[in-house]
Structure formats: C-alpha cells, structure tokens
Design a protein that fits this description.
Elements lengths: L5 E8 L4 E3 L6 E3 L2 H6 L10 E11 L6 H14 L5 E5 L5 H11 E2 L5 E4 L12 H12 L2 E2 L2 E2 L4 E5 L2 E4 L4 E2 L8 E2 L7 E3 L3 E3 L14 E2 L7 E5 L6 H8 L6 E6 L9 H12 L3 E6 L12 H8 L3 E2 L5 H12 L5 H8 L9
Parallel strand pairs: 1-4, 1-5, 5-7, 7-10, 17-18, 18-19, 19-20
Antiparallel strand pairs: 2-3, 6-16, 8-9, 10-11, 11-14, 12-13, 14-15
Helix pairs in contact: 2-3, 3-8
Bound molecules: aspartic acid.
Aspartic acid binds next to loops.
C-alpha cells in the first residue's frame, strides 16, 4: 500500500517560475498560480500537496539571510502539519540556502528538499517538471510511518544530494550541481534508489529546534597570485568584522610571505575567526601537509577540512550568532554538525 504524505511546497522564485519580459527579453519571476497551472501532473501524484509562495518571488541572486529565516519560519510554523517540505528556489544560490537551512534546523526529523530548474516550467524542453515531481516523491518517502529523509537535501537532474555538500558547477547543463565530497543520497532511475547508509540519522529523542540567529559580519576571500597587500589589509581591518572564509589553494596552501602571515596573525589576535577552505572543487584542507600551510595552522587558522565554501559561509554565520569564544568556535567549526564535512 502506498503512503500518502502531506507535502508543503514553498515557492521562493528562480528560473523554474520565470517568463520572458516582452520588452527586454530578460527572465523575471512570475505568479505562482500560473506556475502551478503549468504542471497538471501534480494532481496525479498520490501525495496531498499544499502550496505557499513568497509575496514577491525573487531571482535567487537576491537571496539574503533574512529570506532564509522567512523560509525557516514558514517550515517551523507548519512543521507538525506536514510530512515533508519542498522549496522551489533559483539555482544560483541554492547551495548557500540549503546549507544555511541545514544549520538553522537542529535535529530535523523531516525532509526539506530544495529544487529548481535550468529552464522555466513553461519551456517545452524544461527540466523543471522532473525535478519538481521527483522532489515531491522523495519528500513523501516513508518507512514504518516515518520520513526516510530527515535532512536538508538538494534534488537536481536525477540526484538527491545532501544540501550542505553541494555546489553549483554549471550554468548550461541540466546537471547544474555536484557534491564532490559526498555520495548522492538518492538516485532516480526507473526506481528511486535510496542510499540508506549515506542518510543522516536523526536523534529521535531530541526535539527539532530552529536557530534564528545568523551573523553577516563575515568576508569571503579568495586568494590569487598577486593578491594585493593594501586591499587585504583594508578588508581585514574592518572594525566589526567577525569571521573570514579564506579560499586557499589545493590542500589549504597560501603564500608564505611575511606580510601575509603577519596580517592574518594580527587579525586572529583581534578575535576574528579565519577558516581555511580549498578553492578546489573536491578534496580537503590538510594544514601542515606543505610548508605553505604550516604557518596558517600555527597562527590558529581554523580548518574547513572538505567543507564547501557555501557551507563554510553558512556555518560561520550560524556559529558567530552564538557568541562563542574563539577556542570553542574552532572546536565546533572543525566538528561535523549536519554531515557537512567528513
Ligand atoms: N538566476 C536564477 C536564480 O538563481 C537561476 C536559476 O533559477 O536557475 O534565481
């Protein structure tokens, strides 16, 4: 017997629901009801689906932490009424949003599935229908009366990934996302193949809790050959700066020049947290493996291990809002909280 699940579909915007502006030819967000009319297939699904939309749907390039809170509060307010949540979101910042929601919800016991598309739902060759329909089916998966997925996922082009492991890798291909350091949770073929061992296991005795605080006093800095000293000094001297995600080379390597290391050291001694993540799409930071990262380790740079830049940024905003001492921050950041690092 099939289980009928109650699913809440939350529309935030993105290409999936866009139409072409007659005058400019640019894609812009449109009305959610029109979007639903383009998917009569939704009525054929076994699940009961309710929908809710941002008053003003956005292109996800306009995503901000207060929108993350808006999405999270919709879910929190309806948490007991629904078995799963599907969020329609633009692909540009979907990985950031999925990561943020994963940290904001502690002890999640139901699925929150992000999806979107590369082509609008009204386009003949759209990828939107498969992405949306399968996301709803995955959100409705149950075993022994309980949701199978109990984490924040991202579904795109036949694969469900752990949301906080993803990154957008292609602006053209339907396969727009990758999860370089973690296996897919579900693969969609003739059947939905669930990778049970890879799923996040909830602690059912603990209540689901929403953390509302996110601190945006952060900077994301990608180092490059020739990085300018005065520019870096300028950014790092910002008075209310609290945290920096430093995108380094390879396994966490950076210039060994004295001015560079001294500047980071001075910044850390002011209480600013610096986290080292790699610019590489896959693999991990391993400070101390090369001479070019040994200094970073010594001066107290936090290792991001194999976390994505998107998840590192979200995790930093989440932890900074908790007013931890730098020492405790380092310990917690270097620990996997929601399966975001190995
Ligand atoms: N610019 C769009 C957005 O992120 C792209 C997409 O939806 O795929 O909202």
């Amino acid at each position: 017997m099939k289980t009928i699940a109650n699913i809440l579909l939350i529309y935030t915007g993105g290409t999936i629901g866009m139409i072409k502006d007659f005058e400019t030819g640019a894609l812009k967000a449109f009305n959610f009801d029109e979007l639903l009319q383009n998917i009569p297939e939704l009525k054929l699904l076994d699940h009961h689906i309710d929908t809710i939309s941002f008053d003003r749907p956005i292109d996800s390039s306009n995503m901000r932490p207060d929108f993350w809170l808006q999405i999270a509060e919709i879910i929190e307010g309806k948490y007991d009424e629904y078995d799963g949540f599907v969020i329609l979101h633009g692909s540009d910042t979907m990985s950031y949003s999925a990561a943020a929601l994963s940290f904001m919800f502690e002890n999640l016991s139901k699925p929150i599935i992000f999806t979107g598309s590369q082509l609008p739902i009204g386009d003949l060759r759209t990828d939107a229908k498969e992405n949306l329909i399968t996301s709803i089916q995955i959100a409705g998966l149950q075993k022994h009366g309980r949701p199978v997925i109990t984490e924040v996922g991202l579904y795109f082009e036949y694969k469900l990934y752990r949301g906080n492991r993803t990154t957008k890798v292609n602006a053209e291909h339907f396969q727009a996302f990758a999860s370089p350091n973690y296996v897919p949770l579900v693969e969609s073929g003739v059947h939905l193949a669930v990778n049970e061992v890879a799923l996040w296991k909830p602690n059912r005795r603990r209540k689901t809790k929403l953390h509302r605080g996110l601190d945006d006093q952060v900077a994301l800095i990608k180092i490059f050959p020739g990085i300018n000293r005065s520019l870096l000094e300028h950014i790092l001297s910002k008075e209310d700066l609290k945290g920096v995600i430093l995108e380094t080379y390879g396994s966490g390597n950076a210039p060994t020049e004295e001015w560079f290391v001294d500047l980071l050291k001075k910044t850390i001694s002011r209480g600013v947290i610096i986290v080292n993540v790699t610019q590489c799409i896959g693999g991990s930071v391993a400070m101390g493996q090369y001479e070019t990262s040994t200094q970073l380790k010594k001066i107290g740079v936090v290792t991001g291990k194999d976390i994505t830049t998107e998840a590192a940024l979200a995790k930093m905003m989440y932890l900074l809002a908790q007013d931890l001492s730098p020492k405790v921050f380092k310990t917690i950041f270097e620990t996997s909280l929601r399966g975001e690092m190995s």
